[in-house]
């Protein structure tokens, strides 16, 4: 949530945030998208002739009379307000911010884009990109293609691309790491075996105290148990929908390690919510929490210098591989103002903007220079997340990724709550995903 929460939500299902304000656009016909059925033709040069990075912004100017509507997450509204003011001061283009959960924006765009009621610039978790691009709802990142690729991490560029074409403007990375209370855990555990050893000395269900807690029924947070020993969602770097790896030998090996942790977290999956976990960690009744940077500000306020963050412990002797999500801007293909919209997406995802976003909400930059900046490299908390991102995999962005969450989020509680054999549960989930991929369209 916050890629909520970027992501997780769909896993970023538990990270999903509800629509705070659907926006006046949608009811009052104030949108800036053209009401014609055909998407706006790009006024920018083709990708192959994109200007050099230093000249890209100078190559286009906002359309006469341009004004923009931007969809943003509630959690990052302070950033959106600040950046939109700076953009308006520079380009003399008014910007209206409307709050809409990033995980809902592609669906809303598909409904409201053709009729001219959608935002000009949207902010989405990268795993929603395939659905948007396949439906021709968003314009390619053509004017700023060379600049975007040069300035951002390889993983974020992969995440912002679909079918070998760059569409997105990366602005933040999200993965999760191990939060721990230094007054309770003297040193971050290196392995989940170490976690179990510690938790046996701390967990007391009768007192509602637990050595570790995380959302055990949410695939987003449990992907390390699938991937670290060789499992995966889709093969060929997440692009082959017919190669499903959630039930292969490596995935089952990792999920057996997952099952061991039930001994020190004897709670049903449905009884662990973000709010419950947050409260217990803040009060010192949970010693360790697997969570993302969206919790950082609150945890720092609650624990102060007792807060520690470390990369995830190893699983079965293997480095823990987390899911990486990326929040990316994209430009509505139906916008009346494609130049202004592209300029905003680039401006709001620049090095300076990413550092401002980090300052305001604790995000992890994708811009290489921002990552190297002392603001990031000198921050023990953000740098821990950045370290974990080195051992992370972007969520697949093909449309079929939408078919994965529900089956796996049903299988995990079967394993955790009922002790169902991981192979049995994941075979069932894999078959459900295959059926959805080959039948019902991804939603």
From TrEMBL:
Main subcellular location: membrane
Similarity field: Belongs to the bacterial solute-binding protein 1 family.
UniProt signal peptide: 1-23
Name of protein: Maltodextrin-binding protein
Record keyword Cell membrane present: yes
A GO MF label: carbohydrate transmembrane transporter activity
Gene3D superfamilies in the record: Periplasmic binding protein-like II (3.40.190.10)
Any single biological process term in GO: maltose transport
SUPFAM superfamilies documented for this protein: Periplasmic binding protein-like II (SSF53850)
Keyword terms, alphabetized: Cell membrane, Lipoprotein, Membrane, Signal, Sugar transport, Transport
Membrane-topology descriptor: Lipid-anchor
Pfam families on file: SBP_bac_8
